[in-house]
Write the structure tokens for this entry.
Amino acid sequence: MLETTANGPFVTGKVRLVHAAGMHARPAVKLTKLAKRFQAQISVRASETADWINAKSVAKVMALRAPRDATIEIKALGEDAEAAVAAIIDLVTADFPEAGG
């Protein structure tokens, strides 16, 4: 889905957090490591009323404290934004697998 804002075209996505313990340290580290592989500016939030936070900051991602079954929203801006959003959705959907993290 493409959402155009004053800051340019953002690629956005949503995914349900299925991890039993929610967004704790291990999933947060995996998400931020994945986000850092992309050039795009990537932001996430755990509810429509929450502020967007930098997906490349492990401390901020852990601070989301998103519970199991929360909807994680992702938005990215940049050349590889679409790939970044897709990769994060895949990671969360696969429940943060150990291999390939």
In short: The mean pLDDT is 90. The two ends are 25 Å apart (CA to CA). DSSP finds three helices and five strands in the chain.
